[in-house]
């Protein structure tokens, strides 16, 4: 409980920092390999002409994702969470100090691939986006309700594979609505770019909201 | 640390129970939706003519997997781990008391979909099998070294999707060997049944080993 209290102090601090600098902070969560980094790279490429961007990339171990993201030329800070199964606000606080965070832009935070958290930690982000790959099956919302409840948007990814799977889209949306009736839902493919326009539009709409 | 000590007392107890009854206990782990339940159902159908079988199915929430497994007619006990992100030996200990565990058979334990564990808990199992879906990408072993290190066998699943993915099989095996040079590796598809014969052969070989 005191872990949560300490986390929330840092979260409030992060949230103040983002607000003061007009930054839209987007926290990406998902299972391992659902497509967060692929989606992020495509997103950064589309936003960089018009917006200041920075990324915090987290994994239990390795520098894989920060190396990939660095290819876009965007500033990225890698965090290895080690024993911790997800980011906390203190880690984000320290990472922000090591990034060139410019006013009026986006900070993207890619969390460790993990849907199981004992407690959903506030990082101080503006929005929480859950990337859900259709390859994982329709019932994930009811198996991991805490993570699905807290999402502002669900990006249903890898729809290019739909023809080759037994995926029931109706069941999928029913399970989702059972757990989170209010989340925005976008369907797409980070690989083929399907749905990317709607996704970037949503991001820009959210960014302008906070102005 | 005392959590681990308490766990290991129950794990030793479980291990004794399995040994005394000539039971081969197989612990299945993976990311969410990699195919554990689908693989398990096919496995149960193939083993049930010759072996006593029982299943422990775990998820944070819901009865989804135990309902599916029950369709095979095999006895199954559902555990909801709630706040805990994976099974522990105490939960398994209690579940075993509620299952008709017959001598000289298999107990399959499907864990919560999760590759991130602060500590890899011993359940008292005979073997640990990691189901890794090729849809998750090649670099999972170096991102989740603890889980990959502890696997006795890696079942590389969903290879029916290989033609539709950018999956580099060589990279995949290199990353795996970096983390776990000794694990057995089988490739297959729980959906199309490819690789199922080799998988069942491995299980029967492991079962006869402990006799
Ligand atoms: N077919 C298909 N594959 C995709 C798509 N998006 C990502 N992938 C593939 O899925 C695998 C994992 O993608 P990543 O972007 O690394 O996923 P991630 O969520 O960042 O993974 P972690 O950070 O390790 O949890 C890679 O092999 C990608 O090429 C998609 O829309 N369609
Ligand atoms: N294409 C393909 N799909 C598969 C394969 N195995 C499982 N699936 C699909 O993958 C999805 C998840 O399968 P499950 O067996 O429920 O996976 P799981 O690991 O038990 O999932 P959780 O218990 O929720 O973590 C389902 O839609 C399955 O039909 C496979 O070999 N190929
Ligand atoms: Mg990633
Ligand atoms: Mg399952
Ligand atoms: Zn713009
Ligand atoms: Zn047999």
Brief characterization of the structure:
Two copies of one chain form a homodimer. Chain A has 211 residues and is α/β, with parallel strands linked by helices. Chain A has helices at 2-20, 36-47, 64-70, 89-97, 140-143, 145-149, 169-179, 196-209, and strands at 24-30, 52-59, 75-80, 105-110, 127-133, 153-157, 184-187.
Describe this structure in words.
The structure is a homodimer of 211-residue chains. With 211 residues, chain A is α/β, with parallel strands linked by helices. In chain A, 38% of the residues lie in helices and 20% in strands. Chain A contains eight helices and seven strands. Chains A and B meet through α5 of A and α5 of B. The complex binds guanosine-5'-triphosphate (2 copies), magnesium ion (2 copies) and zinc ion (2 copies). One guanosine-5'-triphosphate sits at the interface of chains B and A.
Give the key terms:
38% helix; 8 helices; 211 residues; alpha/beta; binds zinc ion; binds magnesium ion; binds guanosine-5'-triphosphate; Rossmann fold; homodimer; seven-stranded parallel beta sheet
Globally, the shape of chain A reads: globular
Give the percentage of residues in beta strands of chain A: 15-25%
* Biggest interface pair, counts: A-B, 37 and 37 residues
* Average predicted local confidence, pLDDT of chain A: 96
Annotated CATH homologous superfamily of chain A: P-loop containing nucleotide triphosphate hydrolases
Ions and ligands: guanosine-5'-triphosphate, magnesium ion, zinc ion
Structural class of chain A: alpha/beta
**What characterizes the major β-sheet of chain A?**
7 strands, parallel
Terminal Cα separation of chain A, in Å?
A: 34 Å
CATH C-level name of chain A? Alpha Beta
The multimeric state of the shown protein is homodimer
Radius of gyration of chain A, Cα only, in angstroms?
16 Å
Order of helices and strands of chain A: HEHEHEHEEHHEHEH
């Amino acid at each position: 409980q005191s872990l949560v209290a300490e986390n929330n102090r840092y979260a409030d601090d992060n949230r103040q920092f983002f607000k003061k600098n007009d930054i839209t902070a987007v926290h990406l969560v998902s299972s391992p390999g659902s497509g967060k980094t692929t989606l992020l790279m495509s997103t950064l490429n589309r936003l960089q002409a018009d917006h200041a961007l920075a990324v915090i990339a987290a994994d239990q171990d390795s520098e894989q994702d920060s190396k990939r993201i660095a290819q876009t030329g965007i500033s990225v800070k890698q965090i290895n969470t080690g024993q911790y199964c997800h980011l906390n606000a203190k880690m984000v606080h320290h990472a922000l100090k090591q990034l060139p965070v410019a006013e009026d832009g986006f900070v993207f935070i890619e969390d460790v691939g993990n849907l199981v958290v004992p407690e959903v930690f506030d990082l101080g982000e503006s929005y929480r986006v859950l990337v859900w790959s259709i390859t994982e099956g329709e019932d994930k919302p009811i198996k991991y309700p805490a993570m699905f409840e807290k999402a502002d948007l669900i990006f249903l990814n890898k729809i290019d594979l739909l023809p080759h799977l037994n995926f029931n889209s109706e069941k999928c949306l029913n399970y989702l609505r059972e757990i989170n009736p209010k989340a925005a839902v976008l369907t797409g493919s980070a690989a083929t770019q399907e749905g990317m326009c709607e996704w970037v539009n949503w991001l820009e709409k959210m960014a302008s909201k906070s102005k």
